[in-house]
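Bench notes, afternoon.
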Amino acid sequence: MEPLDSRLHAAWLSQLTREFHDICYQYGVRLRLPVLAIDGGSKQMGCWSASDRRLSLSEVLIRRHPWSVTLQVLKHEMAHQMCSELHGQDDAGHGPLFRACCGRLGLDPSFQRASGDLAEGLAVMDTASTATEQGRQIIAKIRKLLALGGSDNEHEAALAVQRARDLLDRHRLDFAGLAEDQELIHRTIDTSGRTLPVHRKTICAILETNFEVRVICASLYDPLADCSSKTIELLGREEDVAIAEHCYHFLENRLQTLWEHNRHAYAGNSRIARKSYFLGLLAGFRQTLERGLQPAQQPSRHPAPASNLPEIRRQQRLEAFVATRFPRLRRMRGQSSRMDRAAYHEAMAAGREIVLQRPVASGGDSAPRLLP
C-alpha cells in the first residue's frame, strides 16, 4: 500500500472530527472529542483505548471501503467510548450495555457484533444478504417481468410494472410473519456529483411513490478525492430496495440515451432544454405507471383503514428505521426554475413509451422475453 500523503492524512482527520461532532449532534449524545488517529493496521479496523482516550481507525478501512462503512466503524468505537465515559465501564465488551449504546447511535446490527471492527467481520458483511430465500426468488421473478427487451409498447410496460408490484404485494401477504422480523436495509447510490439535479430528485419521488422504500437525498465524503458528493439513500426491505435501485439506474441511463439521440432538435440554451427534456420524459413515465395502478393502490392523503394493520405496521417499522438512521431529517422545499416548454411536452409524450429493461445484475440469463 502506498504511503499516506500528509495532506490527505490531515484532511481525513479533519473530516473524522466533523463526523464525530455531527453524530453526537444527530443522536443527542454528549461525548468529548477523543484523540483521533489513523494507523496502518490491516486486521483491526478500529480501536478505542480508554486509558489515553484514543480512537483510531485503519488506513486500510478508509482506503478500501466506502465512507459509509468507515462511519459504521467510527460509531462502533464511539459506542465503546460511551460505555467508558458515560457509564464508567471500560470492560463492557460487546455485551448488553455496548449494544444499548450502539442503538443510541443508530448503528446497523451487523456492526454491533464483536467482529464489527475487524477485517474478517467487514468481509462477511460485504457478501451478506438480508433477503430470505423467498425474497431472492421474488427479486428474480420481478427482474424477468421487467425484462421487456426492445418492446416500445407503453401498455406492456405499465402491465409489467403493475405485475411486479402485484408480486411484491402477494409476497408480503404470503410471508407477512417473516416480513415482521426481516431486517431492513440501507443502500447508498453515489451520484458522484456535487449537486443533485432536479431530474434525479424527480426519479426519487417516482421510486418512493411506486415502491415501499424511503428515499433520502444526502451527501457522502470521498476520502481519496477529499470532497463530498451527493447520494441517494434507499431504505426498506431488500426486495423493495433491489427493485427500486434497478429502476433508478434504468431511468438515469435511459434519460441520457434519449437526450443524445434527440438533442439536435432543441436549439438555444441546451442546459435548460436538456433539463426540460428529462423532466418531460419522467412526467410521461410517471403517467404510465399511475395508469397501471389499481384504484386501491393509488396514493391517498387519507390514513389507511384500521383493518389494514399489517400494512400500517410495515409503514411504522420503516419510518422508525429511517428515524434511526436520519434522526434530524428535514423536508426541503423545491425551487422553481426556467423551463423549455417545447422540450418538456415533446419529451413527456416520449416518456410514456419508456420500458423497463433487464437489470445488469441479473446475470447470464437467456435472451429477453416479452410478457405473454
